[in-house]
Protein 1
Amino acid sequence: MSTKRIGVLTSGGDCPGLNAVLRGIFCSAEELGWEVIGFRDGYEGMLPEGGDTMTLTRENTASIMQTGGTILGTTNKGHFTSKVAGGDRMTISEEVISRASRTCQELNLSAIIAIGGDGSMNTALQLYRAGFPMIGVPKTIDNDLEATAMTFGFDSAVACVTDALDRLHTTAASHKRLLVVQVMGRHAGWIALMGGIAGAADIILIPEIPFSLERVAEFVQRRDAAGHKSTMLVVAEGARSQHGQQFRKQASSGEWRLGGVGEMLVNEIEARTGKETRICVLGHLQRGGDPTSLDRILGTRFGVKAVQLAREEKFGTMVSYQNDTVLEVPIADAVHRLKRVPPDCQLVETARAVGISFGD
């Protein structure tokens, strides 16, 4: 009897915890006597004849859980791109699907586990509907997928923001400056909100609560008058003013690139208050580094659940974390549904209760 073989890939942006998922998949599959074939560079690894692959082994997965990135590599460009500029969707071509299907048949795969965000899950759904035995594992550093309460990588990103704020408080206080810290968050402000609370920010600006430049400036002036000579402002890259749009940059492929809201705030606040203001854009620092213990555990649990779904042949489903339990949901229920910060949620109320301004 031949050994059952499953495939796995990491797609979209990288984040801490991806290797923990891969290790969880390999270890639980090994317990079943299965072989795990990893596709390099996301779905693109399906296209070369025979596939661009690496077999996961005890040796090449032994020490990966504590490292960031992904040993398989990843990409958010190429033949399987399902999000284009502006966030619009596109359909994967029949020719590309046919090439990928031939590869998977040659490899004799019983299941394919795709680890990625909304765009990657949209691709997984299209492949499932084309007959591929797909299982999804959610990965978004913004924590903005409605179908799961938490995704791995998010806690590590919040820890990065918190550490940056801890470091920046001292330099802001020394120079009596206002520091603007721009963090990730295209459509949802979870990183800014939780990182801002943990790092003792004074102002938090998120996409869900449009801000007023006048209110922000007034808040800074009130702090100065009260004797607080430094101010820390955290802003999600997708935040916008009450009368403006998100700051976007045209991208050659994929979604719009966001950026510029931090620079705008620096210029406007300094002009309105006369206070010396500086900016720190964390950018890809939030994606790098070692995963936190929470992300290592969550990634492992996701990987184990994905193999369980493969064993039960529950294709077309995605791993989901709800109420401290790892479950599954249909991939179709997961895509195109963003989990945004409710403006009246308890976390926002907590921040307001300790004096944090949202600029509204």
Protein 2
Amino acid sequence: MTDNYSTLAAISPLLLLLIGLSITVMIDPYIRREHRRVMLIIAALLVTLVAQNVLDFWVEQDSTQRVARTILGIYGYSVRPAVLVLFLYLFGTKRRIWPFWALVGVNALIYSTALFSGVSFFIDETNHFLRGPLGYSCHVVSGILLFCLLWITIRAFRKIKRAEMWIPLLNALLIIACVLMDSVFATNLRYPVTFLTVGIVISTVFYYIWLHLQFVRAHERDLMAAQRIQIMMTQIQPHFLFNALNTIRALYAKDPPMGDRILEDFSTYLRQNLETLNRTELIPIKKELEHTRLYAEIEALRFPNIRMEYRIEDDAFSIPALTIQPLVENAIRHGVRSRKDGSVIVSTAREAGGHRITIEDNGTGFDPTEERSDGETHIGIQNVKARIEQTCGGTMVLRSEIGKGTGVTLFIPDASEKGKERKL
């Protein structure tokens, strides 16, 4: 009866922790569905490890349960490394995780030999556990996996405060300390749950809390980026509409029938593209070029000295909405509008790792390091630069020379190349 009470007292806190962890994971709004599933699997495996410890503690007292102790030992040594591998799924390493599962499989095979050999461990006639020549395979494999988990954790969250990195490090040290405590006290104490199992459960709870903080921080960053993009969109759209309507108004003063036709075309375009303009996600470049052509054609009616040229060699990719049009608008308004023979060239080309977009003009040019006299400092260009960086990992290079013109080069990486540095 005393043993039953001691067992209950030992496992109750652990089971309550795991139940609380499972409930928290299920209602956590910041964790992804696949991550939630992994965490629940980890919690379930830890419950089975606690049960394995308790069953082993009970059958140890009955010398006729040697086979049962062997099977329980195989299960415990096989599952512990698997728990560490499951944590790696939280860092997007699903495609490169097979070597770790191979280690887990080899470890399980080694301990499975306990059914017919003592190479890993065996239970003697008195029902005592004896370790074989490969009896520390679980420790070695778990150590490798623990090191890999720490390295991937630090790599994934290397930009956070250094003080926060102590949490996963202390978890690893706690597990190592529990292994040492089991080794020291195994022959002197009988306890229903090993120090290692206690350490793994506690570390899992703390590790999840730490991950939750990172997920919340990432969510806040994404939210702030989306808000910045939306603010930029609200700045750009009224600017474009104002200039287009002013152009049509000026056209009505010269040629009302032409004004009617252009207004009808413009209304049709707005009706078809309103949804696209209000989205912050990427759109096909063909739609953006259509948007740009409409603006340029309307401007050309007011300024017949402007010539637009399109050299489109690559149109099989997507970009943020209102990327090219503001740059063309900037080239017309601040560059070629005052030229006798103004020219704006829009070109696209496929390059290694992505797509290049160039907008060049033969306008008045400017000094990129100086602010405009009206204090705007080329807001449209800076908005485009910020949006392509935030939405698709793109880059922008601006070149301008007073009296000769301006060139803007955008590079939009392929999806597989996002995040990699690119110099234009």
Protein 3
Amino acid sequence: MKTLNKLFPLVLIFSVVLVYYESFLGVFIFDDYIWIVDNENIKSFWTSLLYSSRPLTGLTLHFNYLVGGLKAADYHAFNLLVHIASVLLLFGLLCRTSGLPGLKDKIGHDAKLLAGIVSLIWGIHPIQTESVTYIVQRSESLMGMFYLLTLYCFVRGLTLQNNNNRWFLWGIISCSLGMLCKPVMVTAPLVVILYDRTFISGSLSEAFKEHKREYLLLVATLFIPMSLLVAPNESSTSAGFGAMAVGPLQYLVTQCGVIIHYVRLVIWPVGLCLDYDWIPSNISWKTIVEISVVSLALVTSLWMFHKQRIEGFVAISFFVLLFPSSGIVPLSDCAAEHRMYLPSVCVIIFLFSGLFRFIYSVPLKYFSSSGLILILVVVMSGSLGVMTIARNRLYLSEEHMWRDVVAQCPANLRGHLGVGAVLLKQGNLEGAEHHFLRIIEDPRSADNNYRRRFGTEFAMAYNNLGVIAFERKQIEKASVFFERSLLFGKIINAEDNLRLVERLKKNNKVTK
């Protein structure tokens, strides 16, 4: 077992590379076009750094562009390296934690085995594909890497008697870099302090007493995302109380169902979807049950944390990590799998620590406890690895991915728009028309709030229908579609197309 523990870093690297190998063949998809392919800012060092709410993420895209232009494989390679670094950091953090005084007996005899298994399952779990293979979501994995590095550095600093200042310094630098990747990093100072209270100091007062200066500097890094919020960038349209037609209370109620869905995906990762188009919830018996379940889980977590139980810290960390995206501040999308990049660690730790305790408490006749655990892990990791490989293959084609979105969420307007756009590029007018008509004929379009929320999708659907009509020489019909497209927003293509058909009608160059 000791030899296996020493080989675990190599096992982790090999396993992650194996399941993500085909991701190098993946193409740009969905928001990759907005933030990479059509984004002029990434071509310059200063614009990539200054005109984004996630400057460090923008800077990495700039360097990718310098190295290989718009070669998708280079971007995938960077994302995979970040994920591998995160997996190794998680393994190191869990090993350090398991070695703390008095903790080994609580966790079990094979604490490092548990650390390796959790890191392996987390690294190859299919729910991570959206943060790793979906190129533009590297902001999530980058933030996650710096988050884990911050925790690791502070754990080293907290457990050293001498010369610990350099570890605290590196932790503060890492936290600052994470703040430049994604706002979720604002929870890092709190999680570090909760970790100190649970595993080292025993109380919050003692934690602040021993490391007041370090924690004040750590909290000071919060000024970085605060300053980025003031600067004009894309975050103003994707987050905040004006981001979508839903209030903070309705958004919070909706998140109860979303959180349950997230946990279910970690336990049983079937039904993954790139774009859920999760509809905000109204009060019903279903939502009351969801609120009750999440509330009970939160109260139980607080009780376990108060009792200084390891599970309490893990469970509270789960809620803290999700709060920026599943709290009261509405985001433009109610659900997204990449938001579970770090929170999924907590669910996996919770599940496997319970499994370890159960197996070690049951007398076994034909297997040792460690042997049975290894057999279960081989079966589980093999199954998850196959699912991750299959999930990555969807990223090899825009059409395959968008068809999967429509299959998972048939009412998803963006899914139909994506499939239709791909078919239109292929010259399949009938197939494309079917999906665009599905958007404009959606029964929910009678709701003004719904039309406002998906104005871009309606505008693009009408514009594309106009293009199809124009290809069929139906100029009057095309003109009507282009005009309707402009009612939902200013689409440059629609304006140009409308001017073209009006000019043709005026000059009588094409008959009706």
